[in-house]
Amino acid sequence: MRLGIVAGLVLLGVLAGCAPGPLPPDPTAEQLLAHGAKPLPRMALLERLSDKTVYGTFSVDTNADKAGDAWTEYFAPDGQLWYRDRRTTFRGRWHVPDDRDELCLSFREGEDRCAKLYELGTTLQFISVAQGPYQGRAVSYADKTADGDAEGFVPKKPEREHRPRK
């Protein structure tokens, strides 16, 4: 009996050693996969983002934002992108390349910034593929999505006055 208890404790210790540790704030794709995250393929990206407002948080300090700062983006079906964080609001473009399972955004600088998205529970993790200090790491995550332009980013077209014909 005692041998069975010891063997059970040893097995439990071995199994606990195999479990992944807690995720860092800026996990790698490998760390996300070890925690059961699923990479989003191209068609799933289009379905999950087109005509959606996405609410997220930065995982790392960037040139302008700090880890923990919130952001919001609206992905219009025509490829326009509206972005807002604590300091600024601007418009850009978004697309999912035909040959890659990546989301690409272009902002004021004009060059694409691409990321692979991983779904972990109800959270989308954005793993940067750009050259630089964040390559291969999660730069931000989104934990809420709403249908349509939930924040009213897109300017409304003025209504035309309807005049009766004489």
Write the SSE topology.
Blueprint: H1 2-18, H2 29-34, E1 38-39, H3 42-49, E2 52-58, E3 70-75, E4 80-85, E5 89-95, E6 103-106, E7 112-120, E8 123-128, E9 138-147
Antiparallel strand pairs: 1-7, 2-3, 2-9, 3-4, 4-5, 5-6, 6-7, 7-8, 8-9
Enumerate how many helices there are, as a single number.
Answer: 3
Helix content: 10-25%
Oligomer: single chain
Task: Give the averaged pLDDT, no decimals.
Answer: 86
Distance between the termini: 101 Å
Topology, number of strands: 9
Order of helices and strands: HHEHEEEEEEEE
What does the main sheet amount to?
Answer: 8 strands, antiparallel, barrel
| Strand ordering within the main sheet | 2-3-4-5-6-7-8-9
Strand content: 25-35%
Rg of Cα set: 22 Å
Bulk shape = elongated
Uncertain segments are 1-17
| Secondary structure category | alpha+beta
Describe this structure in words.
- The protein is built from three helices and nine strands.
- The protein has helices at 2-18, 29-34, 42-49; strands at 38-39, 52-58, 70-75, 80-85, 89-95, 103-106, 112-120, 123-128, 138-147.
- Strands 2-3-4-5-6-7-8-9 form an eight-stranded antiparallel beta barrel.
- A hairpin with a 5-residue loop joins strand 6 (103-106) and strand 7 (112-120).
- The chain is elongated.
- 19% of the residues are buried.
